[in-house]
């Protein structure tokens, strides 16, 4: 029994020594060696035999041919994001199609991180840690009436909007029923017709008036 105990201790120590030899979990290109530092700071070089805390980042490896995009979505808009939704990633050197592959369950600093898997060919200049812009298509609506989103316009709400008269010099208060909304536009269910011109800015100062003159 004593021999078996010592043999188990020996195997444990041998395994611990073997684990000191750090190996990357995937193939790729070495991006950085050592823990990340603040912008402009110089990271201290790693040395053989150096002791580090558990969980310390020792190196950063990237696969340039297998990139994904991380988009920061505000909490109020993240509720509409779903797995598999189509997306477009603008690298400022080309637009790449993609799909939502992961939604972070936690919110950090008012935003939710959404991972987009890239399905198209990467443009020249695409590389890890590149700053990009992304657009996620929540839903596609065809043949609808819409306007720019007013500052006070919420989806599926009734609002009062000043609509221009044909003379272009006066505007009258009109009740408008809104429907589904995107970031910049919103659906008009009733109250307006195609070609109508409206005022989208905040007009709370004129709530007591049904008609105003526009200079």
How would you describe what is shown here?
The protein is built from 2 helices and 12 strands. By secondary structure, the protein is mainly β. Strand 5 and strand 6 form a beta hairpin. The protein is elongated. The termini are far apart.
State the main characteristics.
single chain, 215 residues, mainly beta, 5-stranded antiparallel beta sheet, 10% helix, elongated
Write the SSE topology.
Elements: H1 2-19, E1 29-33, E2 59-62, E3 68-74, H2 75-78, E4 86-90, E5 95-103, E6 111-118, E7 133-136, E8 146-148, E9 158-164, E10 170-181, E11 185-190, E12 211-213
Antiparallel strand pairs: 1-2, 3-6, 4-5, 4-7, 5-6, 8-11, 9-10, 10-11, 10-12
- Helix-residue proportion: 10-25%
Weakly predicted, low-confidence segments: none
Mean pLDDT: 86
Helix-strand sequence: HEEEHEEEEEEEEE
What's the alpha carbon Rg, rounded to whole Å? 28 Å
* Sheet/helix structural class: mainly beta
- Give the strand tally: 12
- Beta content comes to 25-35%
What's the main sheet like?
5 strands, antiparallel
Lateral strand order in the biggest sheet = 3-6-5-4-7
> Number of helical segments?
2
Rounded to the nearest angstrom, the distance between the terminal CA atoms is 98 Å
Gross morphology is: elongated
């Amino acid at each position: 029994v004593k021999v078996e105990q010592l043999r188990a201790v020996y195997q444990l120590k041998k395994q611990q020594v073997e684990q000191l030899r750090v190996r990357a979990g995937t193939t790729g290109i070495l991006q950085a060696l050592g823990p990340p530092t603040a912008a402009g700071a110089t990271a201290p070089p790693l040395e053989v035999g150096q002791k580090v805390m558990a969980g310390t980042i020792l190196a950063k490896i990237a696969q340039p041919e297998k990139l994904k995009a991380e988009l920061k979505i505000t909490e109020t808009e993240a509720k509409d994001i779903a797995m598999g939704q189509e997306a477009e990633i603008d690298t400022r050197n080309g637009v790449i199609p993609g799909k939502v592959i992961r939604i972070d369950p936690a919110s950090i600093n008012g935003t939710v991180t959404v991972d987009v898997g890239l399905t198209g060919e990467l443009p020249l200049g695409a590389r890890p840690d590149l700053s990009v812009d992304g657009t996620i298509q929540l839903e596609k609506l065809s043949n609808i009436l819409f306007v720019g989103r007013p500052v006070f316009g919420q989806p599926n709400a009734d609002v009062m909007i000043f609509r221009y008269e044909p003379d272009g010099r006066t505007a009258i208060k009109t009740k408008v029923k809104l429907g589904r909304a995107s970031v910049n536009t919103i659906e008009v269910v009733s109250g307006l017709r195609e070609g109508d011109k409206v005022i989208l800015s905040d007009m709370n100062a004129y709530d007591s008036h049904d008609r105003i003159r526009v200079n």
